[in-house]
Amino acid sequence: MASVKAMLGDAVAKLFFHEWTITAAREVSPHFRRIELTGENLREAHGAGDKVQVMIPGTGPRTYTPFAPDPGRGAVSLLVYLHGEEPGAQWGRAAAAGERVRVFGPRGSLPFSTLAPAVVLFGDETSFAAARALRELRGPEAPLAFVFEVTHADEAEAVLAELERRAADAGAARAGPLAGGRARAADRAGPPRRRRSGAVRARQNRSRPCARRSRPAPRRTPGKR
Ligand SMILES: Cc1cc2nc3c(=O)[nH]c(=O)nc-3n(C[C@H](O)[C@H](O)[C@H](O)COP(=O)(O)OP(=O)(O)OC[C@H]3O[C@@H](n4cnc5c(N)ncnc54)[C@H](O)[C@@H]3O)c2cc1C
After folding, report:
1. In this structure, what DSSP letter does residue 217 have?
2. pTM of the shown model
């Protein structure tokens, strides 16, 4: 049975959250799904690095990073990391075109527009969408570097490469490399290599990620999550 807190959350969501429609949902890899949503408030511009909170009925809100905004269609995409059997992961796994969801936001989270020209973003699987949003904002030539600690390095590389490729297919000229630099996995010989555009480092001897979310660094102004 849903908890009182969850029931209250559902009631609040009906009052204050926007209703969006899932227009497409597909598996990018075994642990990632990309979900495209449309909503009236997505016709307004929002900032790269904003977050949205998806209300999961009976549970509460879960936070995701929108990317690939299309204000003309009132659309954005989310990349959901399917880390286990938790509510957000279950929602991401089951999401299907035609479903309606209640969403709070987009609203400010990571202050990408105020960062220095050169940025190094450190993160994990839940930061891939933020990396893509930062690349969309800055363009392919911007001095950005991405360092991810992940559970499955090969899968992560493929997902990041696909994020890039899809952007190019869609004619998003401002997309650029996310996964371009392949770091040697930590559980193989040698230390991780750094390259200009990206590095993916596998977690060693862990069955699950050790960090839920890493903050990007450096940044000039404090941001809320
Ligand atoms: C600003 C912001 C932006 C985010 N953007 C994204 C995004 O674009 N895509 C995305 O997938 N996630 C994103 N996240 C992370 C996401 O909100 C959390 O992972 C969230 O907890 C998932 O909800 P859940 O119900 O699946 O797990 P929860 O019910 O919240 O957690 C239950 C258990 O699962 C564990 N857990 C939660 N998340 C993870 C994880 N990532 N890896 C391993 N164990 C985990 C927790 O330790 C806990 O024990 C973002 C978070 C923030 C704060």
Report:
1. B
2. 0.81
